[in-house]
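Bumping with the actual sequence this time:
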Amino acid sequence: MTLAIPLTGDAVSPQAHRLLAAVRELVELSRGTVTVEAAAVPEPEPEPVPSGPEVRLLTGSRQVLLDGEPVPLTRLEFDLLLYLAERPRRVFSRAQLLAGVWGYERAGERTVDVHVRRLRLKLGASVPAVTTVYGVGYRLADDARITIMPHD
């Protein structure tokens, strides 16, 4: 019978020592042997590098560069993209985006939809920027290559 006990890390915990001692005692009572082998440590998988065009947000001059070429965005389109880029992997409702980007909640929530659509059109289909989370709102796309440059 083979019993494999995965022990991670360099140091073995006191609980693991007690478990090994108990197993060793049981095995020796039945005239077996205990061997301890180092487990193969799997190498961590490298982070996937997003592909596609890179978007740079130059916050000082409020410019957006798509692979080095300027993209003309309105003030609200720029603010919306910056707001999402500063908070990756978070989903925002339309009301949250109105409060965070526009600074008020009195406008209709469809205003956000219009600005997201225009932002997507200006960045082009090859740039995944804003993902729709149906029934909830919007978030920055996982594979978006957006770099925020505070000083340009």
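The tokens above came from a reply further down the thread. The chain is about 35% helix and 15% strand.
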